[in-house]
Design a protein that fits this description.
The complex is a heterodimer of chains A (about 250) and B (about 250). Chain A has about 250 residues and is α/β, with parallel strands linked by helices. Chain A is built from ten helices and ten strands. Helices cover about 35% and strands about 25% of the residues of chain A. In chain A, the strands form two sheets. A six-stranded mixed beta sheet of chain A has the order 6-7-8-3-9-10, sandwiched between helices. Chain A has a four-stranded antiparallel beta sheet with strand order 2-1-4-5, with helices on one face. Chain B contains eight helices and no strands. The longest helix of chain B is centred in the first third of the chain and has 39 residues, at about 35-75. Classes of the chains: A alpha/beta (about 250), B mainly alpha (about 250). The complex binds adenosine-5'-triphosphate and magnesium ion.
Amino acid sequence: MIESVNLHKAFGDKKVLQGFDLEIHKGESMVIIGGSGTGKSVFLKHILRLLEPDKGKMYIDGTDISSLNEAGLYKMRRRFGMLFQGAALFDSLNVWRNVGFQHLQERKLKEPEVRELAEEKLRLVGMVNVGDLMPSELSGGMKKRVGLARAIAYNAEVILYDEPTTGLDPIMADAINDLIVEMSEKLSVTSVTITHDMQSAYKIADRIAMLYQGKIIETGTPEEIRNTDNPFVRQFVSGSAHGPIQLEGIER
Amino acid sequence: MIAALGRLIIGFTLELGKVLIMLSDTLRKMATPPFEFSSSIKQMQEVGVRSLPVVLVTGLFSGMVLALQSYTGFKRFGAETLVGTVVGLSITREMGPVLTGLIVAGRAGAAMAAELGTMRVTEQIDALETLATNPIKHLIVPRFVAGLIMLPALTVVADIIGIFGGYLITVGMFGASPTLYWRQTWDFLTLDDIYNGLVKACFFGASIALLSCYKGFYSEGGAEGVGKATTGAVVLSFMTILISDYFLSAWLF
Ligand SMILES: Nc1ncnc2c1ncn2[C@@H]1O[C@H](COP(=O)(O)OP(=O)(O)OP(=O)(O)O)[C@@H](O)[C@H]1O
Ligand SMILES: [Mg+2]
């Protein structure tokens, strides 16, 4: 359903994606792991054409998204929900208006109905009585959860989560993992999740893909990743500073 | 040297092209429903309320200083009855629209650039896109409309208070006859003067909004980038106002 073929993306001289190939099937929960600054968030933005590749193609259900016109692009985006790494809440709107934003823009539902819907999504992420607060009044972890509520508010077919549990306490993180699993199992949502937390990765993934130096170097089920022979992946999942992965500027 | 000049010209042309593309997108989105009435009204309040006090003070004192200078000057050859005319014409044709433009650029324009810049670097503009909302329509159109409408409105205020400032000095301080002052003002001031001043104001208002939004919309590089975008927006708006004022004057009057 989502297929990237040979994606290349550079910012100035800095090459980020260098031949990124990945296929994500319908209904699947794909987790992408990889070092900080390797381009995971950049890849996620390519899926929705927030960034355009220098080379290579991105296909959604077989359609090359670079060929879509504006109406087609927005129609495609309506099928997606996205949680940004920094939550990206709208500063000028209170929490429930943030969550119900897309419904409010469409003007098909009345405001009280949108509010009710937003409060319900907020409860799913463990937030009650926060609807009237402004984003500036929330902690980092609370913003993240509001961002999550916004990503699931429009009943998307595909949800992209950029580090959903970073910045949350372990109990809340586990509850969010449960929510992600539930979304994909009960509502058969297709999802792409970026995480640094291997425990959540094993819990929510149908398949895990590892990004290293601009390419996907390995994909497999959690079981396969756990028992892989690939020394790069082994080093990453065991969280060791010693191994073939080079950390720039850190002497060992 | 020539290469540097060439790069400068290419850079300028590229930037101008992007501004023009944004203008055409803005005009197109402005004409297609649904219309963003409530956010346009909110922006009009922002632009108007933010700038009104400064416009009042500036307008009043510009009229006063104009009257002061022209009265003492004209007195030397006995033409002090012309003060009302000079104040009326200078305020409505030049100082009203230009000063109002500079004030709005410094206050509302800077605020627009800072706001959109912050939205860009905190990915709120990306978030709008993912929520299938066009950022040009949602963010830029209301600001553009506000600039286009509020600048002439503020200019009218500046015109009135400026002429009143001139009256204060000429009649209040120098003891000229009030009826003569008004006669001198209205006999020579045509509706065209006011109208052309307002055409200028519309142009300035649209330019300020467009350029400030442009600077904010394409800012990059965190808080520092937002700061750069904001100062850039003010400088660009000032230059545009002052340069285009010359050409608009040459064309209109
Ligand atoms: N808009 C941009 N302009 C310039 N460089 C960028 C931009 N976006 C990302 N980059 C660069 O691309 C690289 C990859 O960034 P990205 O955000 O995708 O990393 P990441 O894998 O998500 O890392 P993390 O796990 O820390 O979130 C970084 O080196 C970053 O500096
Ligand atoms: Mg990231």
